Each structure stands twice: as C-alpha cells, then as structure tokens.
Amino acid sequence: MRIIISGGGTGGHIFPAVAIANELRRRLPDTEILFVGANGRMEMTRVPEAGYKIVGLDISGLQRRLTPQNLLFPVRVLRAVRKAGKLLEQFRPDAVVGVGGYASAPVLLAATSRAIPALIQEQNSYAGLVNKLLGRRVGRICVAYEGMEKFFPKERIVVTGNPVRTEIASGNRAEALRFFGLDPNKKTLLVIGGSLGARTLNLATAAALARLREAGVQLLWQTGKLYFPEAQKQAEPYKQENLQALEFIQRMDLAYAAADVVVSRAGALSVSELCLTGKASILVPSPNVAEDHQTKNALALVSKGAAVLITDEHAQARLYDEALRLLADPERQSQLSARVRELARPDATATIVDELLRLIKN
C-alpha cells in the first residue's frame, strides 16, 4: 500500500502525522509512506529525523497585511497544486492524509480532484483554515473534540482523539534522570512552549531562575530556536544546579518521565501528551491563535480538575508562584495526575488508521 501524508508547519501538525505513519508501518510493514511538506518549514528536518522521506512544496500562508507575497499567493498555490498532482501521478497513493498546515492544501486538492481517498486529521477544538476549506471534499474527518460539526459535514466526522507517539508515555524515570544528568533527590520542572517556543513562558522562566535555585528545583526548559541563544546565556550561571535551557527536546518521552510538574502552552498535541503521560500541569494558553482555541483546549482539562490554568497576561506575575506551590504539594500532583489520565485516548492513532483503511476499502 502507498500513503501520502501532507502538512506541517509546527510540531502540533508534524508529530501527529509521524504517529499515524508509525502505526501504519507497525500494522502493515510493507506500506510505502511519503510525506509532503512546505519548503523551509520544520517538517523538512523533523520528518527525516523520524525515518521518513519528505518532498517539499513552495507554499506559504497569507500575510495579515497587503504584501508582494500576498499578490503572488494565487500563483504559488497553482504551482504547488501542479507539483502535488505530478507527485500523485508518480507515487500513485491508495490514500492521502492531511494533518493541517500550508502543504496539506495543494495535496488534498490534487487528490480529491483525482478521486483518491482522502482523510483529514484536525487536532484542535477550532478547525484550521485549510481543513475547514477542504472538509467537504474529503471522505473522512478525524477530530479530537466534540461539537466539530460547526466546521465540517457531520456525517464525515469521527471523534478519535489526537494521535500521539506511543513512546511518549514509555519513558523510564531512572533512564531520564541519567540522560539529562539530573539529581534523583530533587524535584524537576519541565517547561515547554511548543516546538517554536513561547515568549511569555521564556520571559517568566528567565526571571524565575534564581527562585528555582533557591527552592532546590531542577529545570528542563525548552526555549525554541528563536529564543535559545538568549536563554542559554541566562541559564549558564545556574548550570551546576541543573537549570537547563534547551533549544529543542528530541527525547520528550524522557523529559516527561523526569518531570514532576509540567508548564506548557495548551496546543492540542501538548494537551493530548499530558493526558497520556498523566502529568500534573500548569497550562498557559497562547493568546495568538484563532478563536482563542488554546483556552478551550485547556478548559477541557481544567473543568475536570485535571490541570491548572493561568492566562498569558498573568503568567509573568503568577506562574512561578503557582509552579513552586504545586512542586511542594505531592498530594495535589497526584490528584491532577489521576484526573488527567482519565481523559487520555490511548487508542486515537489506531482508530485513525482504522478509519483510513476503511476509507480505502470502501
């Protein structure tokens, strides 16, 4: 069987795509899988690191103001659709999966115009623009949240949860502590602002380094590429106390295993990973997303007593007061952990692959 998986732009699109590919390979080892991404975006490095071939399209999103790039946008889309069409004719896939992001649009357009079975995987509670536009053209739409019929045809929706790499919850704590050089007798805080980093979390964390040292807390701080040089300088004086600034954490399974408490944005993938790993967490939703969907993602946990919510505007003043209180309260950590595990959908990836295979068969 041959499958094309298209999309990317952020880890929230890329890692679910890789999870789907891994499940296909596990179930049907002879399956040929080709990824299609956008040139210059992070999928062009992350997907090969996961062991898959990827082809890039010259495609980008619309700018919010009138620019020469926007004037050229229709031309770029047309060229990308033509290239996607040629890829489909050469690769001859049995089906195409779109996970959101710029690159999924031309591939899904080219596939549906050729009557190739197509499936969309929507991670968020508020559907992305590409997925909303193409939802009526595809055969199946796998979603993580109820109530998505306001974006998609109801009869094509299947609530599956988000695909999460199964190994994310299999990290061994002892191995994790050795991997990061951490002290097993100290509490560990994990701060993740998404694959591209988060300015608010980085500013708040930099300001709290001395407090963390005084409290005897260790830190794994994923800064993102843009913020890393400055964060590395800020963390350098605290290296001996295991306050570590890291551009990107490849072994997230070990990072979760090492952590007692997690501070995170509330992207769909992050929320799904927290549920699967059962980690006590403080969520700081990004305000810079469509329809404030990260707050909706966070409230899905907070309403069940499964996480703590702090708004972005209050993060610099309140985040580390709350983090240190939670780190010092093992009973509350256990309560949050137990409740968040109840919300996990460990079979999400398998269910999505079931839907894909059913679509191909039909």
Q: CATH top level of the largest domain?
A: Alpha Beta
CATH topology of the largest domain: Rossmann fold
Strand numbers in spatial order across the main sheet = 3-2-1-4-5-6-7
**Radius of gyration computed on alpha carbons:** 21 Å
CATH superfamily of the largest domain: Glycogen Phosphorylase B
* Global shape: globular
Helix proportion: 40-55%
Please tally the β strands and state the result. Answer: 13
Tally the helices: 15
**Helix-strand string:** EHEHEHHEHEHEEHEHEHEHEHEHEHHH
Q: DSSP strand (E) fraction?
A: 15-25%
Q: Provide the structure class.
A: alpha/beta
Distance separating the two termini: 15 Å
CATH architecture of the largest domain: 3-Layer(aba) Sandwich
Binding site for UDP-N-acetyl-alpha-D-glucosamine: 10-12, 124, 165, 195, 249, 268-273, 294
Membrane topology: Peripheral membrane protein
Pfam family, one: Glyco_tran_28_C
Main location: membrane
